[in-house]
Amino acid sequence: MRRLPGILLLTGAALVVIAALLVSGLRLALPHLDSWRPAILSKIESATGMTVSASQLTANWQNFGPTLEARDIHTQLSDGGEFSVKRVTLALDVWQSLLHMRWQFRDLTFWQLHLRTNTPIQRSNNDDGVEPGRVSDLFLRQFDHFDLRDSQISFLTLSGQRAELAIPQLTWLNGKNRHRAEGQVSLSSLTGQHGIMQVRMDLRDDEGLLNNGRVWLQADDIDVKPWLGKWMQDNVALQTARFSLEGWMTLSKGEISSGDVWLKKGGASWKGDNNTHTLSVDNLTAHISREQPGWVFAIPDTRITMDNKPWPSGALTLAWIPEQEVGGENNKRSDELRIRASNLELAGLEGLRPMAAKLSSALGDIWRATQPSGKIDTLALDIPLQATEKTRFQSSWTDLAWKQWKLLPGAEHFSGTLAGSVENGALTVSMKQAKMPYETVFRAPLEIEDGVATLSWLKNDKGFQLDGRNIDVKAKAVHARGGFRYLQPTGDEPWLGILAGISTDDGSQAWRYFPENLMGKDLVDYLSGAIQGGEADNATLVYGGNPRLFPYPHNEGQFQVLVPLRNAKFAFQPDWPALTNLNIELNFMNNGLWMKTDGVNLGGVRASNLTADIPDYAKEKLLIDADINGPGKAVGPYFDETPLKDSLGATLEQLQIDGDVNARLHLDIPFDGSLVTAKGDVNLRNNSLFIKPLDSTLKNLNGKFSFINGSLQSEPMTANWFNQPLNVDFSTTEGAKAYQVAVNLNGDWQPTRMGILPTQVNEALGGSVAWNGKVGIDLPYHAGATYSIELKGDLKNVSSHLPAPLNKAAGESLPLNVKADGNLRSFDLTGNAGPKNHFNSHWLLNQKLTLDRAIWASESRTVPDLPEQQGIELNLPPMDGVQWLALFNKGAADSVGTNADFPQRITVRTPSLSLGGQQWNNLSIVSEPSLNGSKVQAQGREINATLAMRNNAPWLANVKYLYYNPSAAKPAPNATPASPFSAINNVSFRGWPDVQLRCEECWMWGQKYGRIDADVAIKGDTLTLDNGLLDTGFARLTLDGEWVNAPGNVRTSLKGKLNGNKIDSAAGFFGVSTPIRNSSFNVEYDLHWRNPPWDPDEASLNGILRTRLGKGEITELSTGHAGQLLRLLSFDALLRKLRFNFSDTFNEGFYFDSIRSTAWIKDGVMHTDDTLVDGLEADIAMKGSVNLVRRELNMEAVVAPEISATVGVAAAFAVNPIVGAAVFAASKVLGPLWSKVSILRYRITGPVDKPQINEVLRQPRKESQQ
């Protein structure tokens, strides 16, 4: 024991020496370490199995121990990666290492370390912490610290993307059980720089595991995509994800026990369907904690903005509870996901839909289709992940809205609460002013005004039960209250029961509520068009049965809706007139519909006992039966508004029934759009039937006809037509190309009772005619109507006393055939009356019946052709115009033209016309329109004239020649012929036109008058004559005048001139002999009187006469009209007296140079005081008056001898009786006394027929000279 210290000393000394030698040896050997580099690297390769290379090894010894520097170290890793270090410096503190019995380095620094590994980072399922191995033991325990400078690590991230972790600086400190690190880490990849993070760790190892501590990191604008994992990259496909964040994580027993994340700023973006969605955060915090045995993730305030729309302030908490052992039969409870959320805006989550579609395509489709929006106030879900059918929930929401998805209807303003579980829960909802689109079920969105409902369900091993109670919905035009129950027993058929009361104030909106998927498209189509209005207060819906068997064709269940509609508008067929003011009961029963009403108006008729049934929806047919009563005129217009317009409606348009009718109607209406079948019977009693093609009406029609659509068939019927009894029957046929109507008529009529002929014609007719007729009407389906009418009869029993050629004796056969063929625009009317009279005409059916052209041909064998131009041609036999005018004057033609329009061009030809007391031979009269009126041309043997009847201008009559010489009894030899106007009375100017007459050559009453002109104007009761002219060639008479024909105030005024070269030639032209020869004459007159022009009233006669006769001779005075003029002034008596005394002078002619006279008439008394005859042997002057009313004379005549000039007496005799008488008496009687007597004075008084002539003075010639 005493030697022990020495031994220890010796040993220590030896050890010191050895250490000194070792140190010395190391001092000497280490500088030469690089020469041993190959052997050292080979030793390392054999130990690690990897090829290792280095470009240089440098070592030396320092006071604290050796230092080593290696350059360009490189090796290949087993996964294909590589590891390299540009430079490694190591300084080992030998003394501290010996002191602490573990490696202590003063310096361990890796410069430009590059590590590239192909092994991806994976989440470890081992929660026991980081277990140290040889390498980790080296770095965590053997090294007290180490540094990394400008290093880089390349690896595969969780997303599968290669990333490079740049480490500008990292310092790692190892304590006994504590490990700390601090530095900067920069992550980058092929897509760019992902940001720089500040990292701090403070970890402890217990039992060799790094299982406790805290980790802190901080980064600004860092790209987090590489850390999200491959699943996130594949399913979320973020385009950007950059955040400024800080995070804390606490490890406990090798597991993460809690953590906090603070997202200061940043956001992410991802591709949507059509655009890019963005998410941004603003100081968002989240806390993760481990609540044994589960996890809780909580966001206390959702500071999130998505697509520039901030989320409302709310909270979100997620919890996961693992599977737990519990007591009982099922001793394990499934792990659960619990969700708690508040104040969520669903529209703000739209940007997450692409992510949801990646997670679940079905979820994405639902989200895309429904596009939900609205606000979830609270949401609580407990979802057992292994038994989701036991999910529990509680929620409340406001104004949710979504679009329809499959059989889930869309909704809006949907608010309510939900509580319970999938197995047993309750739902309370309300909606206000909302629309619920439900395509494939309802044809229009349900417009909910106000609705509430409570639903509850129960699901267990016995099945599923859904109850709907307190359902009260007020929608557009409908209000429904009721409830339902749906049962789905396990292993059995479902059952649905519904009981509801329904009211509506507008039945036309019923189409909105027909479920098309249950009722079928055709039925919904029909009812949608049929129900066009109405009200119902107590409609009832009852449903009970298996909904899969709806509509229960074999009565396996009950579906019934009883709707008593009031004031309804119902269209049994879309293209039939709707029924209005209808009270109808609709009874929807299983697969049929039964409708009935007591009465309804069908247009203008009344339908009673009306039923409308759809016995089976599958047969798609509606059957209607009704009794019809009402006015017949309303039946046709009703069918005109139906598909039967072209058949039955067209028939009733041509055969229009009036009066009350009774009928039975049956309609068979298919829903497939095919034609409706209408049939029935119509009873007529005292009705009327208007036959439109004939424009005539049958009255008192009695009988019956039946119809099937447009096919009508009547029984023999009786009627009254044109006030005559008639037998009629008709039938119609629906042909392949046209609809045909046939009417048969027959009767035995008296023409005088028809009521269409003028009374004057009826008075001339007698007897009856048996006839029959056929009417055929074709109504093409694609063209206008055509028709054919034939009437046949024999006028044998008819007598006619009408003027020729319409006169006929009874018993004389006269077959009459009339045929009309036409269409709705025109028709041709042809026929014959007997074998020699044929006619042809073309009529237009305008607003008023119009005759376009017509021709009547007597003495013909065939129907003549129509005229080439519009007009009427009448080729008639000889006619008595007087008789026809007498008939027309009685009013026989007054009604002509009232019912039809006739052409203005009319041509009448006859070989002889007796009119005006004269036969007009080979006469042709043509009346035709002109530019400013119409023109009438008359040509024949006796006339060639044209009359232009101008509008707004006087008529112009141009007569080339006129020969008018009416036959009359010749007057007695000395009798005065009657005036041709003597029979005229009661003349009225009303309706007379203004006329300009121009006659070139006129013969009247056998006398040629030559040229006659006159302008006649009518104004009220006044006829004015201007520019009157009568020019015979020997005398010229001009005439202007006025004839006032007012009742009680008839008066005439005439003014003009009469002149000529020879008075005897002018008088001889008219067959008048005059004693005045070779004297020119010029007479001016201005006369007026009361009465017509041809019947002067002498008492009212007034006016002036101025007479001028030229040189002439007075010869014989006892004959002719001159003698009558002399008798007027009693010159004949004066001449007889003078002849007795002066016979020599009287027997010689009296020559004169001129005769002048001015006379004025006042109230029938003619006065003169300047009558002067300038005779060759004597001058004669006269004065006095003649009372034309009393026919009395009071005249004085003075005769002066030695008249040297020839006195023109002819004009005096022709115009002025006083002058003529005086001149003639003086010149003829006093001629022999000129040498004896100077002056003779006579006084003439007394009546015109027996005047008194007294010589009052005879002055001798000498005295006169004195």
Give structural notes:
14% of the residues lie in helices and 55% in strands. With 1266 residues, the protein is mainly beta. Among the domains are: 24-113, no CATH class; 272-324 and 333-403, no CATH class; 1040-1265, no CATH class. The chain has a 68-stranded mixed beta sheet that branches. The chain is elongated and about 245 Å long. Mean pLDDT is 81; it is low at 123-135, 968-972, 1119-1146 and 1203-1237.
Secondary structure layout plus pairing:
Layout (H helix, E strand, L loop, with lengths): L2 H27 L7 H12 L3 E2 L2 E6 L4 E11 L5 E11 L1 H7 L4 E12 L17 H9 L2 E12 L5 E13 L3 E12 L2 E15 L2 E15 L6 H6 L2 E15 L2 E17 L4 E16 L2 E6 L4 E3 L2 E2 L4 E7 L2 E2 L6 E2 L2 E10 L7 H7 L1 H10 L2 E12 L7 E11 L8 E11 L2 E13 L9 E15 L2 E13 L2 E12 L5 E10 L11 H4 L1 H10 E15 L12 E13 L8 E11 L2 E11 L2 E10 L6 E11 L3 H6 L7 H7 E4 L1 E11 L6 E15 L4 E13 L2 E4 L2 E5 L2 E11 L3 E12 L9 H4 L2 E2 L2 E12 L5 E9 L4 E3 L5 E2 L6 E9 L2 E8 L3 E9 L3 E9 L13 E5 L3 E2 H9 L16 E10 L2 E13 L2 E7 L3 E8 L4 E10 L30 E10 L2 E13 L2 E10 L3 E12 L2 E12 L2 H7 L6 E2 L3 E10 L11 E8 ...
Parallel strand pairs: 5-6, 51-52, 52-54, 53-54, 58-59
Antiparallel strand pairs: 1-3, 2-3, 3-4, 4-5, 6-7, 7-8, 8-9, 9-10, 10-11, 11-12, 12-13, 13-14, 13-15, 14-17, 15-16, 17-20, 18-19, 20-21, 21-22, 22-23, 23-24, 24-25, 25-26, 26-27, 27-28, 28-29, 29-30, 30-31, 31-32, 32-33, 33-34, 34-36, 35-37, 36-37, 37-38, 38-39, 38-40, 40-41, 41-42, 42-44, ...
Quickly describe the structure.
This protein has 1266 residues and is mainly beta.
